[in-house]
Specification:
It contains six helices and seven strands; from the N terminus they run H-H-E-H-E-E-E-H-E-E-E-H-H. It has about 190 residues and is α+β, with helices and mostly antiparallel strands. It has a three-stranded antiparallel sheet, with helices on one face. Strands 1-3 form a two-stranded parallel sheet. A hairpin with a 2-residue loop joins strand 6 and strand 7. The longest helix is centred in the C-terminal third of the chain and has 20 residues. The protein starts with about 25 loop residues before the first helix and ends with a helix.
């Protein structure tokens, strides 16, 4: 008789073979569930509030079957590149991307200034910058915070488009959509 296993984060069914918990596929599945169903995690990462996993992927073996058909080694699972604002992890909405691409679209929340802009006390102006390839990319100093925000969005959109040039058609078109949306906000 098979032993009953405890649900992972109260929802996930680990029907993998013994020792599956130490594999990269299991860790990917586990981390996806954690982002969606762990209150403590969401307290530190509030952008995941309201996210959920489709019923099919609540079972490890189903997720692993999908994973086996993906180019996933050394990449990160992304739920909102293909569908901006998406909150669901599912086969139709997720894709694996490099860390560089995944970090391109991260949005800072809960701060008093727009994304990419902060007040530089030394200069007495608003500084606009973003991180590109692990390094700060300086955009400029601005008297007005809104001018800094517009400059940030244009520079970030151009950077995203440049990254898209070296990606597959699927990833490139999604990145260009994100760049277009970013510029529309300015």
């Amino acid at each position: 008789m098979r032993s009953r296993r405890k649900l992972v984060f109260g929802v996930g069914i680990n029907d993998g073979p013994p020792g599956a918990y130490s594999t990269k596929p299991y860790k990917t599945w586990h981390n996806m569930l954690k982002r969606c169903y762990c209150d403590a995690y969401q307290e530190t990462q509030p952008t995941y509030k309201g996210c959920f996993v489709c019923d099919e992927w609540l079972t490890l073996s189903n997720f692993m079957r999908w994973l086996a058909a993906q180019d996933w080694e050394g990449k990160e699972l992304d739920k909102d590149l293909l569908h901006p604002g998406n909150k669901e992890y599912s086969p139709e909405k997720c894709v694996f991307v490099t860390r560089q691409i995944n970090s391109l679209l991260h949005i800072r929340v809960g701060l008093n200034s727009p994304q990419g802009v902060w007040f530089d006390k030394g200069a007495g102006k608003f500084r606009a910058e973003f991180i590109a390839n692990g390094k700060k990319k300086y955009i400029g100093l601005f008297d007005d915070i809104n001018d800094g925000a517009v400059a940030y969005k244009k520079a970030k959109a151009n950077h995203i488009r440049k990254i898209a040039e070296n990606e597959s058609e699927l990833i490139a078109s999604a990145l260009v959509r994100h760049a277009d949306l970013l510029e529309c906000e300015s």
